[in-house]
Amino acid sequence: MAIWVIRILFLGMCTMAGYAISQVRPEWTAHPLLGLVIGFGFGGLFIAVDEMLKGFSLRAFSATTFGLLLGTVVAALIDRSGLFDTVGEESTRWLIRLSLFLSFSYIGIILAMRSNKEDFSLIIPYVRFAPRNKPDNLLLLDTSVIIDGRIADLIEANFLEGIIVVPRFVLRELQQIADSADAIKRARGRRGLEMLNRIQRNQRNEVKIHDGDFPEEKEVDAKLIRLGRNLNAKLFTNDYNLSRIAELQNVNHVNLHEMARSLRVVLLPGEPLSLRIVREGKDKGQGVGYLPDGTMVVVNSARHLVGQQVEAQVQSMLQTGAGVIVFADLKSASTPPAPEAIPTD
To answer: Which of 89, 130, 218, 341 sits at 20 to 30 Å (Cα–Cα) from 228?
Structure first.
């Protein structure tokens, strides 16, 4: 849209310039409309040329210029060799030279356009052309990962580098959750907005609110997949289904739950643990505690120690769909629960 505004302004300026020239030319003074038409046609011609060359990049222009220069040099060397000095009259030799320059210029341009950047090393030894600007590393965040909050910790700890991209439709979904009548959803939405403000305050990573939207897609997940593919961005999510869809559609993604699971401490039988017993276990005498990474630890004979910090020793581990459950025994004998007092008469 902006390019057409510039084109219309350029066309108007050319038209007015044509009218101004008609006022200073004596032979055109009586026909100011002719100057307007000439100026309008001149501007329209340039716009038409611009439209035809819209797929012509700066790299193609530089390659064309180099090929033209190379073809002209080769044609000049052949012309100066005196090969055609004895051929016919001067007009004939002029036509031969013209054909020579046109032919080699065309061949040089075609060869340059078909060549890649590595081919230039054959002409200019020891020179390698490399892009100066690397593509941006875009990190696309979905609603779940913003509400989770761990992404803010990773950014502040400088584990993630790149431009943080938050789509406008994700921000709109966060606002809708924050305005929900459900108290739990409202708290989650407000936490997400707080985490987003925290991410924006970070000075290491630039945060951009992307206005791209796909009205034909009704689901936010589908919009995220399409936006991630279009931007070639890495999608960060906590949604298992979204990560599977992204994997099926070859969209680069990271699931924070899977990343946290792979970073958990590997425990071996016999290793000591220090943890707080927070509740009773399902079986008789068991107490349950949690490690800092959220791993559940079931401690035998620790039911009477709920609310206390204990030392335990790993005995075995059980892998489940939700993660790993660690079974441990108390490392040292703990004080048994006090016997109930016997009432006296």
So the answer is: 130
